[in-house]
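Task: sequence in, structure out. Protein: protein-tyrosine-phosphatase.
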Amino acid sequence: MGCIVGKYGQNCNMSCSANCKGATKCSRNAGKCADGCKKGWTGGKCDKGCQSGTFGRNCNKTCSSNCRNSSICENDTGHCIDGCAAGWIGEICNEKCEPGLFGVNCSSGCGHCLKNKPCHFETGVCSEGCEPGYRGNNCKKKCDYGLFGINCSTPCGHCFDNQTCHHINGSCYRGCEVGYRELNCTEECDNYFYGDNCSSRCGHCFGNKQCHYIDGTCKNGCTEGFKGSNCTEGCQTGTFGMNCNKTCSINCKNRSICEKDTGHCIDGCAAGWKGDICNKKCDNNMFGENCEQKCGHCANSSNCNPVNGSCQTGCDLGFQGPLCNDECISGQFGYNCMDNCSSLCVDGKCDKKSGACKRIAFRASSPNDENGNELYIGVGVGLFVIIIAAVISVVVVKRFLSSKRKPKEIKTPERSHCGFEMKTLGQRNGLKMDNKDETSHVYDGSISIIPTDSNYSNVNINTALDIPIDKLEIVIAEKRKNDNEGFRKEYAAIPSGDLHSCEFGKKPENVPKNRYKTTFPYDHSRVVLDNQSGEHSDYINANYIEGANRQKEYIATQGPKSNTLGDFWRMIWQENVSSVVMVTTLVEGEKVKCNKYWPDKDNPALYGPVQVTLMEEKEYACFTTRQLSVLHKKLKFTRVVTHYHYTAWPDHGVPEPLCLLTFHNHVITTSANNMKKYGLYLSPNKTTRGNYINAIASFTNLQHFIVTKYPLEENALDLLRLLSDYESDTVISMQPLSGIKSAEVRTVIIVEPEVEIQCSGSSVDTSQIRSLVSTVLYLETKQPITILSSDGASLCGLFVAVHSVIQQMNMDDRVDVFTAVRQLQIRRPELCARFVSFTE
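Result:
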């Protein structure tokens, strides 16, 4: 009988090894494990552990060489007893560290290896070097102070206060030292800049050279027209040239004012002189400013006075007048037209130089005239009378026949749908109408005679018969009776609502191009753009408008939207528009009424197919004019468009009439020789404000002057409050201040006359007024100027009127004294209220 399981030996008194595999079964006699040994044991009886460096069943496996400390592992599992060596992981340490990790248990991250490549998995060394800004074998140390870049080999630039730079890119944290630029502060200032961060622009150095990169000084001096070490100071009035060491010519018009670089007289030459610097006398037979006028017919072909053109020797044969430009009137001839034609000349007419009769009247005796009655014969007179009679007869017959063909009544056009149409009555009473030119002017915006909500609603209106000018005042007075009953009836007769079809503007693809939801162009008169890329690219909210001179004299359009700026300029180019009249602001309150469609100075902008450049901009009190250069990018052709922008249109109510008339007159006069097309758009009115203080407009600034009287002693503080509240930094006193006691320190500019200004008597001395105005014209201030006088009216009004007129002369080369005075009296009737102020 055998031993029980787990026992062996002769008496079954010995136990099988616990290291036997399979429930400790062993042979009965020898005790050998029947199924072999467990892992980590060897020998017949499985009583011997694996030798160091081996493991597994029967110890037939070798420990990993990646075990830390001499490859010692557990004899059953093979796990490294002390863990894995650097760079290895896994139960038996047979797996390398993942890229980016290294060291014991792969617990360390790689440094900043070049090109982000992984470091060595065991040591962490970056085999190809470090990224810029790092150093060391493992690339974990930042560059030392004052160094940056690859291998930390590049020194920092000229950082502010000698501080270090960024270790990677070398940028200076607090900017550069004075005179250096760019991110790393390694380059000296150039491109005509200098100083702190190269933020200061160089002055006008001679030869357009770069100034010193640190302090901005010009090494070779200044260009003509400037002075100072940095060449930033312009020459004072009356001087020019390099370092401003030359004096403007005394022959310049307007007190020797010339260009500060060339010395050219800005306003031209005084009478009798010519040339760029007005140093040449007029040539023979020329006189006046810039010698632009030709002498009249002086006697003996002598030269006229080069200043005023008068003939010192008198007029030549056949001429008279102060400049000898006027031919002798009928019946006179000779030098200065001092002689009378002979009585034998028919109608007393003779040659204006020699006095010879053009036709001589002779006496003929009639055979049948027994009494010797005289008969004077004028050759050709009878024929002339016959021709005139024939012409009159033809005209009378044609008018009679045409009047029979004309209908007695003119019917108003049938109404249709929305849009804008306006026809201007043709000129009558003998004024010729020229309808050959079919091009139009552009009127841009929401134009409406009927005050509907942004709706184009005009139509041909059959008004009353033409009113003679001499009867106009009587007709107006009649219509004003009974609370303007006549005007009310006329206004009520104006058709309202939509008159024609406007289906194109309502199409879904065109609706986003309309600024207002209910405002569309009439189909029959809309401006059709040339198609470009898309099927629906011909639409713009604009209509042709018939005028007195042409069928398509104007174009009315809305203020452009952001999505129609290109279409707007396509229309300008396509219709060859030369003038655009704008009567709105870009923004009213918080509402955008029109997107800006012109660029700023020195900043050209692209709008669709054209590039627009602002060449010139003039600001007036109520409006601004701009000259725009329009270059077609594809055609390589340039045109000039004049932009008239009325800036004083109120949000509510109606504009100030005189300002609007002044604007209209400026548009008419400056575009009289350029009868092409206009653009006009209107906006809601702005609320105007009134104030007890009289804000008076100059020619270029709507609120340039504040007119008031000298304060009483108890009200002196009010004057100082006025100066403070309105930020007025200049005071013009119309009387000397020597008689006014004052101990206060004033911080404003005070200008006063040397003596009392007199405005009465037969001879008025205007030198003091002119001196004050000249001083103010050269003041460089944008703040209101306060004008004081004893009554706050008489002398103040005279001063402002003269100032405005001189500004107009300087800007427009023309004068309108009436408008200047009228604008003052609208603000305050007491200004220029005396006739002597107007005439002197």
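Residues 704 and 782 are 8 Å apart (CA to CA).
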